[in-house]
Amino acid sequence: MDTRISFELDGQTCAVTADPEMPLLYALRDDLGLDNPRFGCGLGQCGACTVHIDGQAVRSCITPVSAAEGHKVTTLAGLGTPDRPHPLQTAWVQEEVPQCGYCTNGWIMTAAAYLRANPKATDDQIREALTGLKCRCGTHMAVLRAVRRAADAMG
Amino acid sequence: MNTPVLSRRIAFGGLGALIVTLTSPGDAAAQAPGPAPAASPPAPIPPLPTRLSSYVAVNADGRVTAFFGKVDVGQGLDTAIAQFVAEELDVAPGRVDVVMGDSARCVDQGGASNASGVSEGSQPLRHAAAEARLILLELAAARLGVPVAQLSTRDGEVLLTAEPARRVSYADLVAGRTLETELRWNGRFGNALNVQGRAGLKPVSDFRVIGTGQPRRDVADKAFGSFDFAGDARLPGMLHARMIRPPVAGSEPEAVDESSVRDIPGVRVVWRRGFLAVAAPREWDAVRARTALRVTWMRVAPPFPDQAGLYDLIRATPARTTNRQLNEGDVDAAVAGAARVITADYEYPFQSHSSMGPGVGLAHVTADGARVWTGTQKPHSVRDGVARLLNLPRERVHSVWMQGPGSYGRNDAGDAALDAAFLSRELGAPVRVQYTREEGHGWDIKSPATVHRMRAAIGADGRVLALEHLSKGFSRTGVATGEADPRDSMAGMMMGQMVHAADTFLFPGNYIPWHAYNVPSKRMEWQVIPPPMDRASPLRTGHLRDPCGPELIFAGEGFLDEVAHAVGQDALAFRLAHSAEPRDAAVLRAAAERFGWESRVSGSRGGTDDVVRGRGVSLSRRDGSHVALVAEVEVNRRTGHARATRLVAAHDCGLIVNPVGLRRTVEAGLIYALSRTMHEEVTFSRDNVTSVDWEHYPILDITDAPRSVEVVLIDRPDRRSTGAGEPMVRSVAAAVANAFFDATGVRIRRVPFTADRVKATLASV
After folding, report:
1. Judgement on whether residues B337 and B366 belong to the same structural domain of the protein
2. Complex-level ipTM beyond the 0.90 threshold
3. pLDDT tens per residue across span B59-70
4. Domain span at residue B26?
5. A62 at interface of B, judged by CB pairs closer than 8 A
């Protein structure tokens, strides 16, 4: 049964009418026309679909759209912009992290939520915080450099 | 106006072979960078390989557009191509836009292939850019009334060399017209395509842009979430489709009960033999219909052998094709007369592309033709495959390339495009096919499983008399490297076409490890056995990044380490002592020096701690590039957990075009290969592939990434640039295996080096 679900998306109020069990990912991509986050597995295993709900990183491919009702959803495009970049985005550009770049949402959105709560994180803690996220091209080392750089800039 | 068309060309005349033509309004769209806009009907006319404008255009604003018939899959190849064009044209590299892989705007240069984007792909672009510069010089000579010899070019302007204040910009010279002339074409399409004009190429000594670090063009868009991947292409009225694959490979639906999805809005079912799909206006409805559709599948005999016996089966199966790749001296006589003969078997599993996103494609087929949006590595092949699948002339098919979600060879991207094209025709609407994760892992093309029987003959004086390497396994081209023939696509095979495999392992001239070493007698032979299924197989084999390289070097360089140990020599010193090529020795020394290599015989330290450490080295070449890798490995003998803690690579690919991009590419490629080494193995039951997600096909986690990866770049301006996207991949498994031996005193001869495999290996001695 389709239901009207309202939430804040990247600072704008929005609403979709959809099956409440539909994953948030499809609402963001298909109903609201975003090109990010991305479909990687649909199983919550890779992180390519990661967004924030009220600042917490969630996998939108296994989060029902109804869970967003009344909350603040932030995507990579809403985390920062070229004019007002998040420190992680600045670091991503400086370090030239991506190869294909399809995994980017997972790393940046997960790291952003983690660093906000743990601004003094050590290198090993950053690795633990990012465990489970997938990058198939092997940009792991560049990811770690960029997160370190952003953490230092934020700290 | 967004359908590319050839302009009405009017001769400007008077300058020999030079024709400068007027530009029609359509050309502006044709030359605009970025993906072609959504439009129908398509009427693409492939650009002619003999025309300058097919490669390079100088636009009215002075910006330059390069049309590149290959594609970048995440290494910044477009940046390198812009550097080449900027170098020859004398413009700033930031002024060059690169259009890639659009079959209506780019000549067929073979797509991404064999890490040849720089080594071969840049050639026609360089020649075209040099020719464009010559034409601009001639236009300026006419304008300024001086001979060309008195003119020079700099940063988008032609100037009087002796009087630089007298100058004219390219934009003024072109004035909105199209620079056009005929080029001599070598008659080839694909990697080998090249053209030549009247202009020569700039000598390396004059390079100002090549060799400098230039920023990637896609990174900011990717970091800010505004980059468009192939999966982001959408059309109005588009249907979302999901494919339904058989639970037992080789089975086809016996009955499909459409009433089972009747309550899902707008669902349509397409069924042709084994080809089965659902489509709906809303994506979520297609997802639900895929699960809900009731299908009765034919009972078929289980197609696959027991995986536990795979390598024995490969050894026991009669070869269908045998090729002797190398035979020097007399290996048999050397073995017969040897004081010692050592042998070993190395084994390498099926591995999966498992790109970050599973295959996705969008197609719009109308009465006029077809247009597809695809992340394939070979967009011109997809054009040809769609044309054959739909029985259209290929001039009526337009393949628009957009970057895919990771691409490491012949993955599933082109399959999705052909599925979408067939569905669009059947459903009369634009169709976007998104594969599931299960398909991305389970039904993508696999790299072939292989076994390697190694043998060395050692004389009484400890000299190595002979080396032998016998490889056997499935073909590297069980399906073709591109999608140009529907028999090589999922759509074709699911509709009943048999694979038409070529039995290949190495190709003529491919590097093999014995090439690097001076040993009197050397032999390398490979054998290919038939695949377990002749169609629609989830274990069909094809090109995966550095095809056959990792397995070949794992066996060759792993065994060479055994030989060095057998004769009581340090692994590095042994390689250097037998090295036949200065560039090999140079990378070996560079890697060893950076690492701080201590000379000693490997595996000699013992100790009783749970955690032991060791270091190993490998040497490899690929199509003119040389890589030495030193790996440091930590092994927990109790848990079996093995981890590469440090990788130090020395990399020589001739003249370096972009050192920043190269360093990133080598570093990431090493990690990619480390993942394949430590974790990756396609698993299968008698019925089907079972490693169908990241839980069952794990890859390297960031907690297991090395503490440090160091890349030493060796620049050789006197040598042509050779490939850099693949050579590092083959270096990793052997270096890690050799380090594992150094740490534990035990050889590990089967990839991947999982905890279970490590424990079993340590327990076996």
Report:
1. no
2. yes
3. 999 999 999 999
4. 19-212
5. no
